[in-house]
């Protein structure tokens, strides 16, 4: 990393990175004030893919809003659906059978791995390496096939239901997931040799994009970004929901605060997810997947309900304010990348554009979720 | 007189033909190679194994509209793609493919190739400056500093070879290495024990000089969109593209001639043009292999590599070779 | 100084390891399909657009209760029905008969709420996925017509 240079505010020019730019992976616009190749300031401009998801939540019944959640973060749609059904179940006090809980955890963790694999490929592609993306997508294909056979869809699953899941898993799912675990472990080893230990990658990521713990707290950053800055916060551990306190897994935390730490956190999270999947497969009981008694039309009593889950990109929170009607009175979504992106401006000042875009990749942006 | 004229014409046509054919089919090789490295078959639709892809691509590029954006420096904008292709073709004139197949042998062949090679960075500068695009300008500035940083160790390495051979004639350099592979400059350990390192330095510099991954900072697509040719369309883009591949062929030819014994066989049998072609295509395969394996470096990583590692090593090798030549 | 050399050596080694991995992949069998020439079998539970299910006599199972219409988040289903009198075991009964069932696929988000809400086993998912068109009208499906075409 070069020494910090003195940037001059009177000699800058504006560079629009986006709305269409190969590095933003979507319609995000970052208005950068540049001094040569150095960034003086970067303003994130949102609104190019705004779809009023929160307002839609007020106009649709609880069940009708379910498919919307998968459209926020299309890469880890399962976790978002999970958060929403948990919130509604909390509000309407619906019991969930144990088998359904296990299936939920299994699908969410599989989805987390597939989401991290896409991030891994896209991140290395941001850095200019194209081949790891193809390997990652090959392994992700195995997950998508497993999930497609169960849910009927490859990306926007809409699989979790209030009280349980849409349909039961079969033996193919169990066998397929069992076969997937060793395959993924082998693939992770390959990624480590091919990418993680690569000197070019290390040179590009180590010490680049420092995000301090204070900065994370200031902007509300969560997930791997915060965990790479030494904040040991994972909703699955700190506020256990579903069955997560029954599983034995570690939360990877790094104190280096740089892009390489964020990279390592995600790579280790994939391993931890595999551990959770292994345990869930071993423990999964037989039984129903939907509760016997479930209200036909969900009308939670008036009140204010909040549920947070750990999505692939950080803590996803959903707040439902109910007035007792069929629709929510107010539905607030707290999406992780929206908060994570806000520290970009402060963190990228004085960085070279190449490093800044690598740093942007390490935050792991999904634009439709940031700009919902 | 008329015979020499015909000879010259024939040589020029052959050089252009070889360059164009290589440029076109190397794109196919690159795409096939990329596919195979990524466990997919690559282009398959046009012709058997997609072999008709290059002519189809060529027709597509030629029939597209050449868009000249408003406010560009028209002269520079138009001249840059030509300038990218021209030095590459000119360099072919002096490259000996075997002992007798050479368009025009010169006793300063090495010098001429490097003179033309440095014109390549001018094409990048013109394109970036003329395009009136911030990305293109950044990319061209990068390209020039990269070219300067990598010409230094490259030339120092070439000076080492020239000292060993005592000639700047490419044919003489290749003939000097005739015999088995133990005679090649890459293994000329008696002349300087650092020759393999020198070969690596030269190879890395070739990668950087031809703007190939992992040193393709000029057209870093995830940062600078398409770099210096962001604003080019149609054959303007096509010429840049072909120039890049022609430069790769030149780079491999030079590496083969300087280090790998030119057209000589590894075991001293049947020297000829086929060995030369085999060697350059193996080198080109390595180019493709490297491109589809590694992520891109940054501009300071690239300059650090050049000034802190390659230049000290090549200078040390130069001194060592000079000393050994003096002693023995 | 020792760090300088050790970094060069370990860095060079990492590059060689990376290249050996990609070379191994070079000779492995390909994993992709040549899409228009080869296709994959769709999963059993694949959620395509919806189709009506017929009974033994070729009529739709649908009783036009309108549950699917109400369950649909994006309002893409519209159906009409008329009452007809039929004789069952000597008595005349009123029965609703489906006269049209339109699916506006342009707004459908393939969530499957309609199939889930159906109590009469009247709609199912199609396995069709090649649904690209440049005309909006191609996505207004008349499911009743499609059912008849399937039968004929």
Automatic annotation (TrEMBL), chain A:
Domain NADH-quinone oxidoreductase subunit D: 126-372
Superkingdom field: Bacteria
Bilayer disposition of the protein: Peripheral membrane protein
EC number(s) reported in the record: 7.1.1.-
Keyword annotations: Cell membrane, Membrane, NAD, Oxidoreductase, Quinone, Translocase, Transport, Ubiquinone
GO MF terms, alphabetically ordered: NAD binding; NADH dehydrogenase (quinone) (non-electrogenic) activity; quinone binding
Record's subcellular location: Cell membrane
Pfam families for the chain: Complex1_49kDa (PF00346)
Family recorded in the similarity comment: Belongs to the complex I 49 kDa subunit family.
Identification of the protein by name: NADH-quinone oxidoreductase subunit D
Organism: Candidatus Desulfatifera sulfidica
From TrEMBL, chain B:
PANTHER family: NADH DEHYDROGENASE SUBUNIT 1, NADH-UBIQUINONE OXIDOREDUCTASE CHAIN 1
Annotated catalysed reactions: a quinone + NADH + 5 H(+)(in) = a quinol + NAD(+) + 4 H(+)(out)
Segments traversing the membrane: 6-28, 75-95, 107-127, 148-166, 186-208, 237-260, 272-290, 302-325
Annotated signal peptide: none
Stated name of the protein: NADH-quinone oxidoreductase subunit H
Highest taxon of the lineage: Bacteria
Enzyme category, top tier: translocase
Cited PROSITE patterns: COMPLEX1_ND1_2 (PS00668)
Enzyme Commission designation: 7.1.1.-
Role noted for this protein: NDH-1 shuttles electrons from NADH, via FMN and iron-sulfur (Fe-S) centers, to quinones in the respiratory chain. The immediate electron acceptor for the enzyme in this species is believed to be ubiquinone. Couples the redox reaction to proton translocation (for every two electrons transferred, four hydrogen ions are translocated across the cytoplasmic membrane), and thus conserves the redox energy in a proton gradient. This subunit may bind ubiquinone.
Subcellular location: Cell membrane; Membrane
GO terms under biological process: aerobic respiration
UniProt GO MF annotations: NADH dehydrogenase activity; oxidoreductase activity, acting on NAD(P)H, quinone or similar compound as acceptor; quinone binding
Pfam family, one: NADHdh
GO cellular component: plasma membrane
Protein source organism: Candidatus Desulfatifera sulfidica
UniProt KW keywords: Cell membrane, Membrane, NAD, Oxidoreductase, Quinone, Translocase, Transmembrane, Transmembrane helix, Ubiquinone
Subunit structure: NDH-1 is composed of 14 different subunits. Subunits NuoA, H, J, K, L, M, N constitute the membrane sector of the complex.
Membrane-related topology note: Multi-pass membrane protein
Similarity section: Belongs to the complex I subunit 1 family.
Automatic annotation (TrEMBL), chain C:
Highest taxon above the source species: Bacteria
Reactions that this protein is recorded to catalyse: a quinone + NADH + 5 H(+)(in) = a quinol + NAD(+) + 4 H(+)(out)
Range of residues in the leader sequence: none
Sequence positions that bind [4Fe-4S] cluster 1: 62, 65, 68, 118
Cofactors that this protein relies on: [4Fe-4S] cluster
Primary location group: membrane
Presence of the UniProt keyword Translocase in the record: yes
Keyword Transmembrane helix: no
SUPFAM superfamilies noted in UniProt: 4Fe-4S ferredoxins
UniProt xrefs under InterPro entries: 4Fe4S_Fe-S-bd, 4Fe4S_Fe_S_CS, NADH_quinone_OxRdtase_chainI
Keywords linked to the UniProt accession: 4Fe-4S, Cell membrane, Iron, Iron-sulfur, Membrane, Metal-binding, NAD, Quinone, Repeat, Translocase, Ubiquinone
MF (Gene Ontology): 4 iron, 4 sulfur cluster binding; iron ion binding; NADH dehydrogenase (quinone) (non-electrogenic) activity; quinone binding
Positions bound to [4Fe-4S] cluster 2: 72, 108, 111, 114
EC numbers, comma separated: 7.1.1.-
EC class (word): translocase
UniProt record similarity statement: Belongs to the complex I 23 kDa subunit family.
PANTHER family: NADH DEHYDROGENASE UBIQUINONE IRON-SULFUR PROTEIN 8, MITOCHONDRIAL, NADH-QUINONE OXIDOREDUCTASE SUBUNIT I 2
Function, in words: NDH-1 shuttles electrons from NADH, via FMN and iron-sulfur (Fe-S) centers, to quinones in the respiratory chain. The immediate electron acceptor for the enzyme in this species is believed to be ubiquinone. Couples the redox reaction to proton translocation (for every two electrons transferred, four hydrogen ions are translocated across the cytoplasmic membrane), and thus conserves the redox energy in a proton gradient.
Quaternary structure note: NDH-1 is composed of 14 different subunits. Subunits NuoA, H, J, K, L, M, N constitute the membrane sector of the complex.
The protein, known as: NADH-quinone oxidoreductase subunit I
């Amino acid at each position: 990393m070069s020494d910090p240079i003195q940037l001059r505010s009177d000699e800058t020019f504006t560079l629009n990175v986006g709305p269409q730019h190969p590095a933003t992976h979507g319609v995000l616009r970052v208005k950068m004030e540049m001094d040569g190749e150095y960034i003086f300031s970067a303003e994130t401009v949102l609104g190019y893919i705004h779809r009023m998801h929160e307002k839609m939540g007020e106009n649709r019944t609880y069940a009708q809003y379910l498919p919307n959640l998968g459209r926020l973060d299309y890469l880890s749609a399962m976790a978002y659906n999970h958060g929403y059904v948990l919130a509604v179940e909390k509000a309407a006090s619906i019991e969930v059978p144990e088998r359904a809980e296990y299936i939920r955890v299994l699908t969410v963790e599989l989805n987390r791995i597939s989401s991290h694999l896409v991030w891994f490929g896209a991140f290395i592609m941001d850095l200019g390496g194209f081949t790891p993306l193809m390997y990652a997508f090959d392994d992700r294909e195995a997950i998508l096939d497993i999930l497609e056979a169960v849910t009927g869809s490859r990306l926007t699953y809409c699989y979790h239901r209030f009280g349980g899941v849409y349909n039961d898993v079969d033996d193919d799912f169990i066998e397929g997931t069992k076969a997937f675990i060793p395959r993924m472990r082998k693939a992770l080893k390959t990624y480590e040799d091919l990418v993680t230990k690569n000197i070019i990658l290390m040179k590009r990521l180590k010490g680049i994009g420092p995000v301090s713990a204070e900065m994370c707290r200031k902007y509300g950053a969560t997930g791997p970004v915060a965990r790479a800055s030494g904040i040991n916060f994972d909703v699955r551990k700190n506020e256990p929901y579903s069955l997560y306190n029954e599983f034995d897994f570690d939360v990877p935390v790094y104190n280096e605060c740089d892009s390489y730490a964020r990279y390592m956190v995600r790579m280790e999270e994939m391993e931890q997810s595999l551990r959770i999947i292994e345990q869930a497969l071993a423990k999964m009981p037989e039984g129903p997947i939907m509760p016997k008694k479930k209200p036909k039309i969900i009308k939670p009593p008036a009140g204010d309900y909040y549920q947070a889950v750990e999505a692939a990109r950080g803590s996803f929170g959903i707040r439902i304010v109910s007035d007792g009607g069929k629709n929510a009175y107010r539905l607030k979504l707290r999406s992780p990348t929206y908060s994570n992106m806000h520290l970009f401006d402060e963190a990228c000042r004085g960085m070279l554009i190449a490093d800044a875009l690598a740093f942007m990749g390490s935050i792991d942006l999904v634009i439709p979720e940031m700009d919902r | 007189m008329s015979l020499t004229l015909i000879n010259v014409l024939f040589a020029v046509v052959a050089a252009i033909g070889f360059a164009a054919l290589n440029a076109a089919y190397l794109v196919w090789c690159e795409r096939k190679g990329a596919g195979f490295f990524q466990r997919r078959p690559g282009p398959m639709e046009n012709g058997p194994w997609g072999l008709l892809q290059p002519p189809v691509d060529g027709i597509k590029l030629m029939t597209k509209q050449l868009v000249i954006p408003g406010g560009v420096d028209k002269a520079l904008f138009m001249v840059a793609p030509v300038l990218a292709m021209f030095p590459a073709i000119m360099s072919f004139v002096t490259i000996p493919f075997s002992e007798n197949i050479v368009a025009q042998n010169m006793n300063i062949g090495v010098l001429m190739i490097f003179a033309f090679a440095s014109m390549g960075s001018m094409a990048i500068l013109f394109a970036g400056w003329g395009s009136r695009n911030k990305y293109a300008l950044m990319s061209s500035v990068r390209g020039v500093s990269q070219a300067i940083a990598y010409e230094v160790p490259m030339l120092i390495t070439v000076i080492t070879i020239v000292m060993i051979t005592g000639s700047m004639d490419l044919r003489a350099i290749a003939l000097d290495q005739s015999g088995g592979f133990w005679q090649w400059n890459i293994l000329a350990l008696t002349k300087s024990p650092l020759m393999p390192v020198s070969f690596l330095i030269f190879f890395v510099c070739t990668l950087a000089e031809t703007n190939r991954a992992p040193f393709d900072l000029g057209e870093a697509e995830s940062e600078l969109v398409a770099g210096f040719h962001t604003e080019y369309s149609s054959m303007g883009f096509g010429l840049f593209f072909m120039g890049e591949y022609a430069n790769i062929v030149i780079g491999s030819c030079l590496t083969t001639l300087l280090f790998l014994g030119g057209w000589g066989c590894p075991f001293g049998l049947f020297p000829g043009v086929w060995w030369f072609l085999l060697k350059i295509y193996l080198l080109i395969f390595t180019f493709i292999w490297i491109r589809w394996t590694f992520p891109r470096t940054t501009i300071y990583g690239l300059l650090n590599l050049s000034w802190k590692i390659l230049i000290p090593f090549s200078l040390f090798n130069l001194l060592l070779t000079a000393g050994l030549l003096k002693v023995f | 100084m020792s760090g300088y050399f050790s970094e060069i050596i370990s860095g060079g080694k990492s590059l060689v390891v990376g290249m050996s991995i990609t070379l191994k992949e070079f000779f492995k069998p390909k994993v992709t399909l040549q899409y228009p020439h080869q296709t994959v079998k769709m999963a059993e539970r694949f959620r395509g657009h919806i189709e009506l299910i017929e009974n033994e006599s070729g009529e739709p199972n649908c009783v036009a209760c309108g549950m699917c219409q109400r369950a649909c988040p994006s309002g893409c289903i519209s159906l009409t029905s008329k009452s007809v009198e039929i004789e069952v075991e000597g008595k005349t009964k009123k029965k609703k008969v489906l006269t049209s069932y339109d699916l506006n696929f342009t707004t459908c988000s393939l969530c499957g709420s309609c199939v889930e809400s159906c109590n009469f086993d009247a709609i199912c998912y199609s396995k069709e996925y090649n649904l690209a068109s440049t005309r909006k009208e191609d996505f207004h499906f008349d499911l009743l017509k499609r059912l008849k075409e399937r039968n004929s």
